[in-house]
Amino acid sequence: MSTDAWTICPHCTKDAKKDINALYGTVSMEEFNAASKELTKVLEKENMRLDYEVYIDGDKMIVSAKAYCTECGAEATARSETPVKPKE
Ligand SMILES: [Zn+2]
Question: How many other β-carbons are positioned within 10 Å of the β-carbon of residue 16?
């Protein structure tokens, strides 16, 4: 499958946001700022790999895609087959 894009994993950002919220008020402002700076990096990190391909197999168009997070392992796959119809 061809690799073509990287994007931000929705699960990693969810955890990072939760971590920032959990820290607030429990550590010094200095520590909180340092930690949220680190977590902000996670929020901007494109760790979800998107592989996809589109091709014709017989009389069908195949669209196949997979998203996989290299950080937390979250994944999604999709595949569809659509008949290629002659123009009516
Ligand atoms: Zn992730």
Answer: 20
- CA of 17 from ligand 1 middle (Å) equals 13
On average, the pLDDT of the chain sits at 89
List beta partners, residue 61: 56, 82
Reading the block at residue 16, the tokens are 């990072």
Q: Find the 47 Cα to ligand 1 centroid distance in Å.
A: 7
Mean pLDDT of 64-84: 95
Please give the model's pTM, rounded to 2 decimal places. Answer: 0.66
Give burial (CB, 10 Å; 0-12/13-18/19+) of 48. buried
